[in-house]
Amino acid sequence: MVARPTQPIAGQKPGTSGLRKKVKVFAQPNYAENFIQTVFDVVERPENATLVIGGDGRYHNRTVIQQAIRMAAANGYARVLVGQGGILSTPAASNVIRQYGASGGLVLSASHNPGGPDEDFGIKYNIANGGPAPESVTEAIYQRTCEITEWRMVEADDIDLDTIGTTQVGGLTVEVIDSVADYAALMEKLFDFDAIRAAVAGGLTMSFDAMHAVTGPYAREILEKRLGFAEGTVKNGVPLEDFGGHHPDPNAVHAHELFETMFGVAAPDFGAASDGDGDRNLIVGKGIFVTPSDSLAMLAANAHLAPAYAGGLKGIARSMPTSAAADRVAEALGIPAYETPTGWKFFGTLLDAGMATICGEESAGTGSDHVREKDGLWAVLLWLNILAVRKQSVAQIAEEHWAKFGRNYYARHDYEALPTEAANALVAELTASLASLPGQSFSGLTVAEADSFGYTDPVDGSVSLNQGLRVLFEGGSRIVFRLSGTGTEGATLRVYLERYEPVGGDLAGHTPDKLADLITAADAIAGITRHTGRTEPTVIT
Ligand code: G16
């Protein structure tokens, strides 16, 4: 074992989902090592613990994995499980942690952010329940990064990451495991694969865009091999270190080819995509985009059609900026609805306590208590299971849903790569004005309430303040303002817009038209153009 002297490096504070920085930052001497050592110093683990390591295959993945293995060997771990080729999707890593009783895992990903030598990398620590470390742990990790004086490793060569098998690194046993097998077996347990296979044999078609990211091998195995969709159903199925030069972000901008297919004349019945690390999903029917908030609500309303959820749901949880569509489903089912801050880590306690079964976020994440991460392919398979049983199109299912529950028109406007000072000034000014907003009218909308969202975890009592600024209007429309916690360049302002149209109202409207007054109001309330100089968002999802 060797101890390498080091010094604290500024800025190693985990954000919404771990530490995300440019590769060039991560590749600096001691940068990744300092962070990994602080994780090993801080987290709870028994003697002879098992650690899971896997990543989304992006550039720098293998370098950090090899170093993390040498460091795990020097830090008292007994066993490391690593995905073949260094690959594990984020939900698959969560499953491996749970299935093999690991004390935790290092998930190497910057999710939907682009990859390559000039792009992004990330490290996230997941705890023994398989989920992202809660804020108490990430805060302790951060504090430790400010004090670190050395990191430890054993002197050892790189291991062969590409061949399944076992290697010794010092006293550490390293097992290279099949990245897909355990996850695919879990999906077969949750869903009615026979019903989906029968629907495929009966003509159900789909297109899945893996975006040259981690889900390619998972989607090929499950969709093409096990469910019988035609070869070629999975597009861009080979994971590439730079995702083919694209953003592996499943939205209308970065998955536009899928949108063109699904809105074209020869559209298949169902379209889906997943992101860099496989935890996000995009759902598109023939000629219809299903917003993530609506998808959560529709999945929850129909989950009983899949074997795993046939007994009903215990509760539904959503992040605060996610639309309230799922709350109406929870009410109809007579089960609790929870509203948490942005970040999958906030769902962990509810899932562990058996208070919620299905969770979701506007940021294209949906999942259940089968793992402790959001799960892109899980959402796709639950949709397929529902389509197979209901024998209806996505559009029919959506229309029936809105006719029963009303419709939450919804969009998110992102203003990316803003100067940090401008974004902070906007938030500070808006925060200061919150108390004076109620009673004022903007574009014909009268503010009923305005606040800064705070959350008290109902399970462990932990408190998280300043989780987004909410402006609620009379009649149920809403605008939420937040700064993203996952960007790596300047600041990203997210503006979440929502209008509820009750049953019997205009349920077939065009979303931009339905939100036009809210969009104007957002600028008047927050001074977006005044602070940032921007007149248009960078991305609308
Ligand atoms: C992460 C988190 C999600 C969050 C999303 C966006 O997702 O796990 O809970 O909703 O970031 O966060 P923000 O609005 O702070 O950028 P992912 O897919 O990037 O890991």
UniProtKB/TrEMBL annotation:
Its cofactor is Mg(2+). Pfam families: PGM1_C_vert_fung (PF24947), PGM_PMM_I (PF02878), PGM_PMM_II (PF02879), PGM_PMM_III (PF02880). One of its GO terms (molecular function) is magnesium ion binding. GO terms for biological process: carbohydrate metabolic process. GO terms for cellular component: cytosol. Residues 12-149, 182-284, 293-405 form the Alpha-D-phosphohexomutase alpha/beta/alpha domain. It comes from the Bacteria. InterPro entries: A-D-PHexomutase_a/b/a-I (IPR005844), A-D-PHexomutase_a/b/a-I/II/III (IPR016055), A-D-PHexomutase_a/b/a-II (IPR005845), A-D-PHexomutase_a/b/a-III (IPR005846), A-D-PHexomutase_C_sf (IPR036900), A-D-PHexomutase_CS (IPR016066), Alpha-D-phosphohexomutase_SF (IPR005841), PGM (IPR045244). Keywords: Isomerase, Magnesium, Metal-binding, Phosphoprotein. It catalyses: alpha-D-glucose 1-phosphate = alpha-D-glucose 6-phosphate. Its EC number is 5.4.2.2. SUPFAM superfamilies: Phosphoglucomutase, C-terminal domain (SSF55957), Phosphoglucomutase, first 3 domains (SSF53738). Belongs to the phosphohexose mutase family. This is phosphoglucomutase (alpha-D-glucose-1,6-bisphosphate-dependent). It comes from Novosphingobium umbonatum.
